[in-house]
Automatic annotation (TrEMBL):
Gene3D superfamilies: Dimeric alpha+beta barrel (3.30.70.1060)
Taxonomic source organism: Amycolatopsis dongchuanensis
Designated name of the protein: YciI family protein
Residue ranges of every copy of the YCII-related domain listed in the record: 2-102
InterPro entries: Dimeric_a/b-barrel (IPR011008), YCII (IPR005545)
Organism lineage: Bacteria, Bacillati, Actinomycetota, Actinomycetes, Pseudonocardiales
Length: 113
């Protein structure tokens, strides 16, 4: 079964990241890379997304679509990356996500075909 794990940063996580020195950031990035290597046999695709301010949003409904620069999605969390995994079941996806060493939120969604 395929799932998408969305990695979400919070405002506090971003503040903590900014407060780290270069060595701490490199160590944190190393932990993420190790997690990706550990699960590489189940990861079918992964990517880090560009910063939220690079987003373009299209609001649909209520007439003509409105296109704006920026994410402008309601909420305090920002999706910063994802992995697509091919695992036997949700329990395995949850086991993988529990070990995620990066940002503090992981949303797991089944991929519908």
């Amino acid at each position: 079964m395929k799932y998408l794990m969305l990695f979400c940063e919070t405002e506090q996580w971003e503040k903590d990241w900014e407060a780290m020195d270069e060595a701490e950031r490199e160590a944190a990035t190393g932990r993420v890379m190790a997690w990706l290597r550990e699960h590489s046999d189940r990861i079918t695709h992964n990517a880090k997304l560009a910063a939220p301010e690079t987003a373009t949003t299209i609001r649909l409904g209520g007439g003509e679509p409105v296109v704006t620069d920026g994410p402008f999605v309601e909420g305090k969390e920002v999706v910063s990356g994802y992995v697509e995994v091919d695992v036997p079941d949700l329990d395995e996806a949850l086991r993988m996500a529990r070990g995620w060493p990066g940002c503090p939120l992981v949303e797991i969604r089944p991929i519908a075909f």
